[in-house]
Amino acid sequence: MSATAPHVLIVGAGTGGLCLAHGLRRAGISVAVYERYRTRGEGLLGYRVGIGPTGSRALRECLPPELFDIYLATCARSPRWFNVITQRMRRTASFELRPDTHPVDTERSVARMTLRQVLLTGMEDVVHFDKTFTHYEQRDDGTVTAYFADGTSAGGDLLVAADGTHSAVRRQYLPHAVTRDAGTINIATRIPLTEHTRALLPERLQRGISLIFGTGGMMGVLHVMDFKWDAEGRLKPGVSEADAALLSRWSGRAHDPTRDNINLVVWSAARRFPSDVMQRRGDELVQVALDLTGNWHPRLRELLMRGDPASALPIRVSTSEPVPQWKSSTVTLLGDAIHTMTPGRGVGANTALRDAVLLCRQLRLATAGEKTLLQAVADYETEMVPYGFARVADSLNRSGTNGDDRMYKPVVGRLALLGARGYFGVTSRVPRLRRNFVNDFYTYRGEED
Ligand SMILES: Cc1cc2nc3c(=O)[nH]c(=O)nc-3n(C[C@H](O)[C@H](O)[C@H](O)COP(=O)(O)OP(=O)(O)OC[C@H]3O[C@@H](n4cnc5c(N)ncnc54)[C@H](O)[C@@H]3O)c2cc1C
């Protein structure tokens, strides 16, 4: 293998790994992805992911142009409002978001399964399923070999860990880089969007992202996911001709069971949940959510009751402990594998995509002979490590995703709740603060750091 034409091994066919694989393939760089799931429809943690300008920009750069257009066409209707409500559905604040007329400078509501099917499109020869990575060996000739649980192995010039929060690559490569429990648990539920369930929500909640600041340290977020296809998978009336043409010839549609739905996620400090919550599923898990939200508005509780029990999912929130930059080699990491962050700022996937495009650019330079492969990896890590851990830190202190948040303390919790509601109320009413809030929502601070 020549030093200027590397073969790249990626462990993990998640958001970051697949985006990188597309970017490398477009650049003519040989790449193979190894994924532990047995099929393209298995697994997934949660249902909705918000992709902002950072993520969409990365996808635009890495995906073939038609696939980027398919990504846009498969997003749910973009949120027009960012709402903050009480557990009784009283509006604390409401911020108008940008219209979705621009392909990247907007907030996109994406179904995780749909995004995965988009990213797998055209990659059938690159992605190898049912390959659970176990360990690797770095060889004296500069190559690296990845080993899998089925006894097989694969060799290349660079191994990229894109294997998420519990990364087996990271465990071997940087054993001191650990994640810890952030101290909160989420229960994610998915409710079919019907005329009845839609009517349970006021207009701005139907068209927005709604953060629920409840009393007693119970938090929630609600998203309405309205797609261009109906319950039978047929295109809805009113879909533009261009989108209809794209969606009709998109092969990934056959693999995507996603339909219109409402995502309602509730969370709180882990100590408030029954000790076996992570083992509970179905009705038993929905019951936990109902027990914890006894004082919520009957309409919100009706949504929980109308959810598909099979879709209820417990998620224990983790966060990475920052580590100083290490000496670069033929193994590197991206996304949650190196900087797992709480959902507090909703930027984990966006940051994984940012990593992917940055690493891709560096590997293009190495392939063009402008720097060595090791220099490219080092330059990527020098840029990624500071912003990655900065996002970890600022995510931890947002939206009560940290179990130590004052919101969860018995007495000061009430004051913290009043403070948070007051902050959103004032910010939404003062034009300059409102503008700054909305701009920050799109750019997330430190994008240029
Ligand atoms: C409740 C919740 C809400 C969130 N909302 C948002 C949001 O709105 N916006 C946002 O930007 N981020 C959000 N995030 C964060 C986001 O989901 C993650 O940061 C993002 O998915 C990370 O992408 P990744 O590619 O690094 O890892 P993943 O997408 O997790 O992919 C890792 C892949 O590696 C595979 N894998 C793991 N181990 C192995 C192995 N040993 N061998 C082979 N394959 C393996 C996995 O099966 C998986 O496919 C949210 C997270 C949570 C928990």
Protein traits:
449 residues, alpha/beta, FAD/NAD(P)-binding domain, 7-stranded mixed beta sheet, 5-stranded parallel beta sheet, 15 helices, globular, binds flavin-adenine dinucleotide
Would you kindly provide a written description of the structure presented here, covering whatever features stand out?
This protein is an alpha/beta fold and about 450 residues long. The chain has a single domain, classed as FAD/NAD(P)-binding domain. It contains 15 helices and 17 strands. The protein is globular. It binds flavin-adenine dinucleotide (FAD). Flavin-adenine dinucleotide binds next to α1, β3, α11 and α12.
Distance between the termini: 35 Å
Overall helicity: 25-40%
CATH architecture: 3-Layer(bba) Sandwich
**What class would the helix/strand composition place it in?**
alpha/beta
Bound molecules: flavin-adenine dinucleotide
Can you list the strand order of the major beta sheet? 5-4-13-14-15-12-16
Low-confidence stretches: none
Number of domains: 1
Number of DSSP strand runs: 17
What is the typical, i.e. mean, pLDDT? 94
CATH topology: FAD/NAD(P)-binding domain
Percentage of residues in strands: 15-25%
What does the overall shape look like? globular
Layout: helices, strands, pairs:
Layout: E1 7-11, H1 15-26, E2 30-34, E3 48-51, H2 53-62, H3 65-74, E4 81-86, E5 91-96, E6 108-111, H4 112-120, E7 127-128, E8 133-138, E9 144-148, E10 153-156, E11 158-161, H5 168-173, E12 179-192, H6 195-199, H7 203-206, E13 208-213, E14 219-225, H8 241-249, E15 261-269, H9 282-292, H10 298-306, E16 313-320, E17 331-333, H11 336-339, H12 348-367, H13 373-396, H14 412-429, H15 431-443
Parallel strand pairs: 1-2, 1-11, 2-7, 4-13, 11-17
Antiparallel strand pairs: 3-6, 4-5, 8-9, 9-10, 12-15, 12-16, 13-14, 14-15
Helix pairs in contact: 1-2, 1-4, 1-12, 2-12, 3-4, 12-13, 14-15
The structure holds flavin-adenine dinucleotide (FAD).
